[in-house]
Amino acid sequence: MSLEYTECHYEQLDDTNKNLCQELTERFIVLNTALATLKNKITEEKQLWHQEVAKTIEIERKLSESHCHCHIGKHFADAVIKIRHEINEEIYKKQLNEAENMCNLEMVNIRNSLDRLAPLRAIVDEWISSETNERDETAISE
Length: 142
Description:
Layout: H1 3-8, H2 15-66, H3 71-141
Helix pairs in contact: 2-3
């Protein structure tokens, strides 16, 4: 349901339904804001993760260069680099999954809000339909 639809027929509602409509509209706005905030946080976390990976690669490169004189040291450094990459990758995936779960939860809340608005929309549609029929009957009788 669009906000325009709700606002368009707002004046036709009684006080109880106006309050319900207002609360649902406010909830919809809050949920949209929360969803936008979550998207921004995901983008920021992605950028930070890329920066951390770049720093880690640079440090690992320096570490690897410093251990080049020793064959065992190089293998150890390679193993450390590989483990760090795997750990960073797992942390990033976990954070993305958490953010996705939060977005999914907000989407469920939005859908629930929209479902709660459905009876209100049906009432407004019925009122509009009955008013249109009354106008048509009045126009015909005149």
